[in-house]
Structures are given as C-alpha cells and as structure tokens.
Amino acid sequence: MSAMKEADMLKHRSQVFSTMQQHQHNQLWTGLLNDKFDQFWSENKKLMKPSDGSYFKHIPVHFYRSGSSVMTQTLVKPVSEDGNHMTLGELIKLNYPSVDNPKIFTHGICIPHETPVQWMSEHMSYLDNFLHLVVV
C-alpha cells in the first residue's frame, strides 16, 4: 500500500489516494490478498487516470539494469521539453545515455522505443502502480 501511495503522490500529488475512504483502501488490499482482480480494480482504476484529463504529474517508474541488482528511480515527466509525449526511447536516453540501442522489457515483453510513457503508465503498470523497466 505504501508503494501505491508513493505512485499516487508522483502521479496526482496524492490527491486521489488521500481522498479515498478507509473501506476503499480495504477493498484494494483485500482484492490483492484474495486474488480478486475485479474487487481490486474497481478502486485502483481511480489511481490510473490522469486527474487533469491528459497527463500525470510524473510517471512512477523503477529501472533495473540487466546483470545488476540495483534499482534506480528518477523523476519522469510524461511530456518532453518540446511539449510532445515522452517516449520510452527518449526516457532511456535521458537515464542511460551510454547504452547504445537497449532493449527495454516489462512484464516479459520487449517494448518499442516509440511507446509513450504516459500510455505505458496507464496500461502496463504493476499492481503497485509503478512501471518496472528492465534495460538490457
């Protein structure tokens, strides 16, 4: 639950999680514990929508480098400096400039570099609402 709070802080400045009632927090937790995705998702979907209708404030993401046990986390904006959607390729170049043409995996899937990170955060986050990206 603390990771979900952290993700909400990054995405919505904690405006969603903090306004949820205790029974909604319980529904999230018991849905996870009892392996009932529908119960979990009925509350979690509120945390997966941009509060302003278009973008999250920041994207909750953890990076893992293949062959290393170190996890890194940086502040990721969903929009690049030129005002366009930040793509996975742009994100990786910012965080791993010395890695030439890396493959990026999440959920065991190799993700194309042109994928927008906002879309990934909304549709490919793990249950803790973070993107977990492996850089190979």
Automatic annotation (TrEMBL):
<dbReference type="GO" id="GO:0034274">
    <property type="term" value="C:Atg12-Atg5-Atg16 complex"/>
</dbReference>
<dbReference type="GO" id="GO:0034045">
    <property type="term" value="C:phagophore assembly site membrane"/>
</dbReference>
<dbReference type="GO" id="GO:0061908">
    <property type="term" value="C:phagophore"/>
</dbReference>
<keyword id="KW-0072">Autophagy</keyword>
<dbReference type="InterPro" id="IPR048940">
    <property type="entry name" value="ATG5_HBR"/>
</dbReference>
<feature type="domain" description="Autophagy protein ATG5 alpha-helical bundle region">
    <location>
        <begin position="1"/>
        <end position="49"/>
    </location>
</feature>
<dbReference type="GO" id="GO:0000422">
    <property type="term" value="P:autophagy of mitochondrion"/>
</dbReference>
<dbReference type="InterPro" id="IPR007239">
    <property type="entry name" value="Atg5"/>
</dbReference>
<keyword id="KW-1017">Isopeptide bond</keyword>
<keyword id="KW-0832">Ubl conjugation</keyword>
<dbReference type="Pfam" id="PF20637">
    <property type="entry name" value="ATG5_HBR"/>
</dbReference>
<comment type="subunit">
    <text>Conjugated with ATG12.</text>
</comment>
<comment type="similarity">
    <text>Belongs to the ATG5 family.</text>
</comment>
<dbReference type="GO" id="GO:0044233">
    <property type="term" value="C:mitochondria-associated endoplasmic reticulum membrane contact site"/>
</dbReference>
<dbReference type="Pfam" id="PF04106">
    <property type="entry name" value="ATG5_UblB"/>
</dbReference>
<protein>
    <recommendedName>
        <fullName>Autophagy protein 5</fullName>
    </recommendedName>
</protein>
<dbReference type="InterPro" id="IPR048318">
    <property type="entry name" value="ATG5_UblB"/>
</dbReference>
<dbReference type="GO" id="GO:0005776">
    <property type="term" value="C:autophagosome"/>
</dbReference>
<comment type="function">
    <text>Involved in autophagic vesicle formation.</text>
</comment>
<dbReference type="GO" id="GO:0006995">
    <property type="term" value="P:cellular response to nitrogen starvation"/>
</dbReference>
<keyword id="KW-0472">Membrane</keyword>
<dbReference type="GO" id="GO:0034727">
    <property type="term" value="P:piecemeal microautophagy of the nucleus"/>
</dbReference>
<feature type="domain" description="Autophagy protein ATG5 UblB">
    <location>
        <begin position="58"/>
        <end position="135"/>
    </location>
</feature>
<dbReference type="GO" id="GO:0019776">
    <property type="term" value="F:Atg8-family ligase activity"/>
</dbReference>
